[in-house]
Amino acid sequence: MMEMQAARMVQAADSLLKLVSELKQTAIFSGFASLNDHVEQRTTEFNQQGERTDRMLARIGEEAAASLKELEFFFLV
């Protein structure tokens, strides 16, 4: 009788350890998924910022080219 109880306790402890292990894995993978989402969001934000910067640089380049043409005109006159 005691041996049966001991065997059941061992099985219950083993089941509990397996459950804890599965819960740890779930928590780890959930953390990675959350981290992945955050990284993707930041990547999108940085790409958008890069596009805005490219447009701004193109506009500055156009304005600089126009200013150089004006200066050339004044020096030629």
From TrEMBL:
Single GO term (MF): transcription coregulator activity
Pfam families noted in UniProt: Med22 (PF06179)
Localization annotation: Nucleus
Key word Nucleus present: yes
Keywords assigned by UniProt, alphabetized: Nucleus, Transcription, Transcription regulation
Record's GO cellular component terms: mediator complex
Highest rank taxon of the organism: Eukaryota
Main location: nucleus
Biological processes annotated in GO: regulation of transcription by RNA polymerase II
PANTHER family in the cross-refs: MEDIATOR OF RNA POLYMERASE II TRANSCRIPTION SUBUNIT 22 (PTHR12434)
The protein, known as: Mediator of RNA polymerase II transcription subunit 22b-like
